[in-house]
Amino acid sequence: MSKIFKIIMDIFLILLIIILAGYLILRVTNILTIYKVETGSMEDGIHAGDYILIISQKNYFKNDIVTYRKGKYFITHRIIKIDGDIVITKGDANNTADEAIRKNNIVGRVIYSGGILNFVVDFKYAIAGIMIFLYLISSYLESRKDKIEGKEKLKTLEE
Question: Rounded distance, CA 134 to CA 128, Å?
Answer without folding.
Answer: 10
